[in-house]
Amino acid sequence: MTRKAAILQSAYIPWRGYLDMIASVDEFILYDDVQFSPGDWRNRNVIRTSGGPKWLTIPVPKKNRIHSLICDVVASDPCWGADHWNRLSESYRKAPYFAEVADLLEPLYMSGQTSLSLINRSFLSAINRYLGIETKMTWCWDHNSSPGKTTRLVDLCRSVDCDVYITGPAAKHYLDESEFEKAGIRIEWFGYENLVEYPQLHGGFLNAVSSVDLLFNCGPDSRNFLPALNKSK
């Protein structure tokens, strides 16, 4: 039986394409013992507001941050959660499923968590449960692997007995596909062309926004806008 895995750095309240990839595999490995990249999706995402798209950014220390591993990064302001929740409430209070999704998200924002990796995983886990995504999620350090950009990915796939590795098209620039072939692991390139529009507040449709936008607007029907949840792995 085919077993699929994906390996990605954690992301803060990621866009629905990220969730769709999680839903398409049997095991999703969070690859957080690699270098943190300022200005990436690890600690920020975009929401819709009446004033246009706005960034929600978890503040992190500027000193040495480009030399830090994602798993070692902590929020520099312990009150970041209250600020983000206030901004989300202001933007989505009139959304059809605000109250329902608030019950899911507000406790996470008020938890006081400052570890970036744990923040990201807690939101991912909660959103997955809400959407009925049953994919197993683990940390990369839960598994044995050897150094090397492609070698390590192959080892992680082997460690979870996967024979299909799912990854985005950007990986074509650095993956050595021959290493996967030697290991008997097939690569499948994941695309986002099947993502369709859903109802949104604040103007015309925008695709590249946080998945919380989908949840507030569509609630349990959000599943209908994730292609992987509507077909078998």
Structural class: alpha/beta
Mean pLDDT: 95
Shape: globular
Kindly state the percentage of residues in helix.
25-40%
Give a short account of the largest sheet. Answer: 5 strands, parallel
Number of helices: 7
Give the ordered list of helices and strands. Answer: EHEEEHHHEHEHEH
**Count of DSSP E strands?**
7
Which band does the percent of strand residues land in? Answer: 5-15%
Rg from alpha-carbon coordinates: 18 Å
Q: What is the rounded distance between the termini?
A: 11 Å
Strands of the biggest beta sheet: in what spatial order? 5-2-1-6-7
Q: Which spans of ≥5 residues are poorly predicted at pLDDT below 50?
A: none
Number of domains: 1
Please, could you describe this protein's structure?
The chain is an alpha/beta fold and 233 residues long. The protein has one domain. Helix content is 32%, strand content 12%. It contains 7 helices and 7 strands. Helix 2 runs antiparallel to helix 3 (98-109) and helix 3 (98-109) packs antiparallel against helix 7. The protein is globular and about 55 Å long. The mean pLDDT is 95.
Give short descriptive properties of this protein.
233 residues, two-stranded antiparallel sheet, 7 strands, single chain, 32% helix, five-stranded parallel sheet, alpha/beta, 7 helices
Task: Give me the secondary-structure topology.
Elements: E1 4-8, H1 16-23, E2 27-30, E3 44-47, E4 54-57, H2 80-92, H3 98-109, H4 116-131, E5 136-139, H5 149-159, E6 164-167, H6 177-182, E7 186-189, H7 211-218
